[in-house]
Amino acid sequence: MINDILQHFNITSSHSGVAIGGHWLTGQGETLQSWSPVDGQAIAAVQATGRKEYEQVIEKAQAAFLEWRQWPAPKRGDVVRQMGDALRTHKKALGRLVSYEMGKSLQEGFGEVQEMIDICDFAVGQSRQLYGLTMHSERPGHRMYEQYHPLGLVGIISAFNFPVAVWSWNAMLALVCGDVCIWKPSEKTPLTSIAVQKIMEPILKANAVPGGVLCLVNGGREVGEWLAQDTRVPLVSATGSTRMGKQLATVVGARLGKALLELGGNNAIIISEHANLDMALIGCVFGAVGTAGQRCTTTRRLIIHESVYDAFTQKLVKAYQQLRIGNPLDENQHVGPLIDKDAVQHYLHAIDAVKQQGGRFLVEGGVLEGAGYESGCYVKPCIAEAENHFAIVQHETFAPILYVMKYKTIEEAIALQNGVPQGLSSAIMTQNLRESELFLSAAGSDCGIANVNIGTSGAEIGGAFGGEKETGGGRESGSDAWKAYMRRQTNTLNYSTSLPLAQGIKFDL
C-alpha cells in the first residue's frame, strides 16, 4: 500500500526535502529517515536542508514576494481555489500517507486533508475581504483610512501531530494576503510535506506563480533556528511545545520580529450535575483518545460534579474497555500508535509520576506487545484519579492519559479548569443556562476556545484557533486571523488647498 502511495506522489526512496516551488534542490543537510509508527518500518529517506540551500530558498522567496505582492488579491485567491481542488483530487492518497507516516486513524487522516480543503475555500472568500476602515479626520478637506499590506516572507514551523493541516491554515491565508511561505515541517513527518509540495507544483506552474512563493525546507532543529534568527523573515508561525515556543519567541523577539505561536494545551471538560451523561461520554472519550492523545486540544482533565462522579466514571471505564487499539489504517480501530518510542517513554514516565504523586488508576496503562504491535508504539489509553495541583497534571503529556477529579460548585470547577499554565481549549457539559453562560463569561474559562456541550477536540475552520497563557496567544485559521499575516498602515489624504495641523497647532512661516 505505502509503495503505491509513494509512487502516486513520485516520492523516491531517497528524496530531496528542499524545494522552491516546483524546483527541487539537492539537500546537503542531515538525512532524515521517515519511520512509520504503524509497523515500525522505514518508509523513505529525506535529504534535509543545508545552509547553502536555505540561503537559495530565502533569496528566491524575496524575489518572488516583490512580484506576488502586486498580484490582485482575488487573483491570488483563485490560485488557492485551484489548490483546494487539487487537494480534493488527492485526498485519499494524502490522507493515507498522513495516517501511515504519523499514525493517526485513517478517518482522521482524511479529516486532516478535508481541513486543508476547507481553509482553501475560506481563503478564497477572504481574498475579496481584506478590509480596512475609514475614519473621520478632525481636519477639513482630509480623508483618513487604514489598509493592510503583505508582510513578506512567512516561516511556518509545523508539528508532527497535524503534519499538513496546520501548514495550510497558515499558508492559504498568507498566500491570499500576498505573502510567500517557507515551510519547515516536523522532522518526524517529512514525506507528507513532500507530497503536499508535489500536489501544489502543477498549480504553481499552470498559473505562472513566481518561483519562491511556496518553499519547503525539511530539516531538524537548526533549520527552525535559521528561520527564527533571520531578519528577512518578518513572521514565524510555530506549532509545538511550550518549551519550544518560549525559545523561539525569545529569538524572534530579540530581532523585533513577529511570532505566531500555537503551543501546548491542558484541556478540561467540566461534567455538570445537569449534563446529559450519555452525550458527554462521546465528547470525553473521543477528546481523550483521538490521535492517541496527541492533539493540542486533547482532553486531559475531567472535572466532574461529585453527585454524578461515580455514575460517570463507571460509564467512562466501560467505554475504555471497548476501545479497539491497532493499525490506524483499519477503519474499525479507535486508537493508533504514538509517534515513536520516545513518546512511549514520556507516557510511561507520566504514569509513574501519577502513582508517585498520589494518583490512582481506574483504567491501567501499559505498552501493548505481540502481533500487530511490533513497532512498540502502541499503548493503552488510561484513566487516573488525580488532583489538579499534582505536578504531572499541570504538565501536558502528549499521550492518552486522562485525569479525573471532583468538584462541588460551578465556581470551583471553573477555578480548577483555569488552574493550569496552559489556556487552549475547554468545555462544559451542562443543560443549565446559568452554568453555560457563566462558563462563557469573563468570569469563566480563560482559554482561547470555550465550548458548551461539545468536547475540547476538533475546531471548525471559520473560527480563530489558538489559546492564551502558555499556549502562546496566537490565532490561526478563521475569523480575522488573516491580519496576523499583514501589516496595518494608517493613511491620511489631504485634498484641500491648505495644510492645517492636527490638534489646532499653528505653525506660520
TrEMBL record:
Q: Which InterPro entries match?
A: Ald_DH/histidinol_DH (IPR016161), Ald_DH_C (IPR016163), Ald_DH_CS_GLU (IPR029510), Ald_DH_N (IPR016162), Aldehyde_DH_dom (IPR015590), ALDH7A1-like (IPR044638)
Respond yes or no to whether keyword Oxidoreductase is given for this record.
Answer: yes
Instruction: Write one Pfam family the protein is assigned to.
Output: Aldedh
| Record domain Aldehyde dehydrogenase: where | 24-490
> Which EC numbers does the record give?
1.2.1.3
Going by the record, the broad EC class of this enzyme is oxidoreductase
| The entry's keywords | NAD, Oxidoreductase
Can you tell me which residues form the catalytic site? 262
Q: How does it assemble?
A: Homotetramer.
Q: Which family does it belong to?
A: Belongs to the aldehyde dehydrogenase family.
Name of the protein this chain belongs to: aldehyde dehydrogenase (NAD(+))
Its source organism is Chitinophaga parva
Species lineage, top-down?
Answer: Bacteria, Pseudomonadati, Bacteroidota, Chitinophagia, Chitinophagales
